[in-house]
């Protein structure tokens, strides 16, 4: 589940999907004076009656975040002018769908301290001078597309890359002088003729085919200097030097860097659990050194890891091959379930020209090695949660964690020019709270110090360390969170360059609103902290080299996406574009209201007490609803995710929140809410649920229903609940622990956390041997006889993340206890489920249970 227990739109993860939002805001009108710059469903069946998880919500379920204390609780976003008809299902999922997102500039890329590249829908990309807005073609896209197709790149990919070079899965060298992309399983190099996509070069781009093999070359990456291409083939790492330049560019001899790779002993490509839970759903298991001379490569040994089989029962049967062809497609994936053996991993260094791999032994007399960081002999040991290079390429760092991630050790190993390894040293350790999250890449400052994120104070903040790991100072602090470091910029120079100027640290965070995300800058000593993006909502900035400008793309629940050019100090330069979704003019919109819901203290199963607290969320109400009318009798559908520190209540446009407005404009109010452990209000609330996933969250969802039943306009006997992945687990759990919800839709649900993987689950629950009572609380089959209300279970038949085993176990338990329920299996879907059939299924179920109609 990568950080949150679940998968959804993409597959799973702790980062939930965005929801859907409101109407254009007054901000659009206020800035109107700035002229914008040019710039199938799968087969499925339904059983009724018959017989989640961790990622995010599937497309359209939506999610957001709470509001700050100084924001008014009511912030209505009324219907668009002259739009009074309800949103229809066909408006969102029919053949003539309404556009609720609109168009706005995307894919803008800085190509220097004061210039950026604008992709082209047609024609050639443009390079734009930030200070003046003057633009010109960057290169001849038609000529590049022809060169790509002539070299063997597939036609559509060639055309898209030529017009939008950063919009496809290509990698670039540091200067963006060269690109490396894959097509049809082979690799191709592009030489633009000069840095920054060759925008100042006279020569036309040159394309060279690097491989032509029956195997697939995958996970390619150019070296920082653009002179070597690395890739994985057959679970081993390879490199190809690029010789010459321009028209003389050609590949050198291929070099195999690792040997003996297989599906069970992988070199340079992650196994499933590392991909899913530690590497942000990135399969790449190697990293170039900054000097382009060496590569750090991971080895994942899954030979002792248990396998899980997923069947494609809907695959066609080849009649001509009977009886050998059974019509089933069988997939076996090494998947470590809780309490079982983890992959055994190690990190090595190899020269880009080949030679032996030097494998790192992280242990010394005073530092435990990975095997000792497990729970018992033979369980795979600890984890290499992250790794990378120091800027000079003379040292590697690695984050080592014990099996249940209660601590983190940041260690460094010197690497000589010959590839020989020094003795490891420990730079720092983290051990606080119920578990320690991997902090991601350190950010290096020109003076050799580095920044690292930490949740030691219960909030994610930046701390600065000397090169030897000595803590120098906290950079940020307080009851809010740093989300990501966007750039370290030295005025008058490129990021990371030494200069007499003090660098700025640009980062995004929630200092001014826990449901928003804003850009700030601060000095390394923590001084001069300044917010650079004044508008409410969620900001996604791109900082120019040197920090003199940034492009700010943002939206809010009542503001469709806008793209602004600002100076490094936050001053508005120009409006580059703003979405004006045409669909908004045709429909009514629900009315938005931020809410805070009190939760009373409640007893815990272990004899303790969960203290009273507050839930944060928003309501989307039917247009024109009189909330003081006791005869309104409006049903409410509640949506959540609920995984620890995985909020869904956000202030962003989220593609227009069509699914939520569909319900609201048809008479069903929507409540999007986070349990306390899931909100963006620090790590301490998340740590509270350690070892007992679902218990406090269930209390919170019961409190949400109770609060709704106290509202005069609510039909208290018609409240529904839905979620996917962890949200599916929580939905099914709530309906087996209370009768306050009349109906629920549980998608992709974990129904027993002993069925889920080691790294995600043991971080939050410890091992089953150490916490049997906690795991028992997550086994929904034990509570199947207590099911209340109507329950629709939905699952992908080929879900390789939250296995179908979960839904079958729960369905069997429900049947054994004589409980009616509904079940939909999408035979060829994975953890993410989408399509018109899926949406229609849920729409019909919601109307049937909330409006008593279909």
From TrEMBL:
Known EC number:
3.4.14.12
Question: Where does the source fall among the domains of life?
Answer: Bacteria
Task: Name the Gene Ontology biological process terms.
Answer: proteolysis
Q: Which residue intervals define the domain Dipeptidylpeptidase IV N-terminal in the entry? A: 207-561
According to the record, the segments passing through the membrane are: none
Keyword Protease (UniProt): yes
* Domain Peptidase S9 prolyl oligopeptidase catalytic per the UniProt entry, residue ranges: 662-843
Q: Which Pfam families match?
A: DPPIV_N, Peptidase_S9
Q: Which InterPro entries match?
A: AB_hydrolase_fold (IPR029058), Pept_S9_AS (IPR002471), Peptidase_S9_cat (IPR001375), Peptidase_S9B_N (IPR002469), Serine_Prot_S9B/DPPIV (IPR050278)
Chain intervals with Basic and acidic residues compositional bias: 319-334
The UniProt keywords, alphabetically, are: Hydrolase, Protease
GO terms assigned for molecular function: dipeptidyl-peptidase activity; serine-type endopeptidase activity
The region called Disordered is annotated at 1-21, 65-85, 319-342
In Swiss-Prot or TrEMBL terms, this protein is called Prolyl tripeptidyl peptidase
Task: Report which gene this protein is encoded by.
Answer: ptpA_2
